[in-house]
């Protein structure tokens, strides 16, 4: 009877060991799968981080280019305003000079008319 109890205990112990081995194999397989997924995720995350850094660099370059264009546009706008002011000033000067020229022509006509009248009177 004692020998039978001993054999049954050995058999239960072997079943427990077998169960523990199976459980350990399952845990090892799960750990391996989780580790593989973690590594894949880590690689994907590293790729995403690299892509994000590249996009940030492109965005920075585009931003710098836009800033330079905005500065250039502002300078061109200022130059246009200066040019427009110069055009207005020149147009005013042209109007003034045309007025002076008309006045000079009227005076010359009046002077010639007066001169012609004097010459005519002198010979008559």
Description:
It contains 1 helix and no strands. It is mostly helical and about 120 residues long. The longest helix is centred in the middle third of the chain and has 122 residues, at about 1-124.
Topology, pairings included?
Elements: H1 2-123
Query: What gyration radius follows from the Cα positions, in whole Å?
Result: 52 Å
Low-confidence stretches: none
Note the gap between the termini.
Answer: 179 Å
Number of strands: 0
The share of residues in extended strands comes to under 5%
What value does the average pLDDT take?
95
Major sheet, described briefly? Answer: none
- Percent helix, as a range, is over 70%
Element-level helix/strand string: H
Number of distinct helices: 1
Q: How would you describe the shape?
A: rod-shaped
Structural class: mainly alpha
State the gist of this model:
By secondary structure, the protein is mostly helical. 98% of the residues lie in helices and 0% in strands.
Key features?
124 residues, mainly alpha, 0% strand
């Amino acid at each position: 009877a004692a020998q039978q109890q001993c054999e049954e205990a050995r058999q239960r112990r072997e079943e427990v060991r077998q169960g523990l081995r199976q459980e350990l194999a399952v845990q090892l397989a799960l750990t391996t799968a989780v580790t593989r997924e973690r590594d894949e995720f880590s690689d994907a995350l590293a790729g995403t981080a690299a892509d994000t850094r590249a996009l940030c660099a492109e965005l920075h370059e585009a931003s710098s280019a836009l800033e330079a264009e905005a500065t250039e546009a502002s300078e061109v706008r200022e130059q246009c305003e200066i040019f427009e002011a110069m055009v207005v000033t020149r147009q005013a000067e042209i109007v003034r000079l045309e007025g002076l020229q008309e006045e000079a022509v009227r005076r010359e006509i009046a002077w010639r008319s007066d001169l012609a009248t004097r010459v005519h009177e002198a010979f008559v």
